[in-house]
Give the backbone structure.
Amino acid sequence: MVLFFMNSFEKKEQNLNQLIDKLNSLSLSYSQPTYELEKLRTEKNELTNQKAEIEKKNEELMREHKYLKDKKKKKKEKNKKKK
C-alpha cells in the first residue's frame, strides 16, 4: 500500500515537472501570470515533502519488518534446538 502512494506521488511529481516545463516555455513566448507558476511550484514542493515523509515511514516499516522477521526466525531455531 505504501508503494502505491509512493508511485502515485512520483507520477504526480513527474506530471507537475512536465507542466512547469511547459509553462516555462510558454512564458517565454507569451506573458503568463506568475502566480500560476508559483502555485504549481508550491504544489510540487508539497508533494515532494509528502513523498519524503512517506519514504521515511516506509523505511521505518521495512526496518521493523526485518527486525520482526529475524526475531521470528531466531525463535523458531531456538524451539527446534529444544526439541
Notes: The helical segments are 2-29, 34-82. The two ends are 39 Å apart (CA to CA). DSSP finds two helices and no strands in the chain.
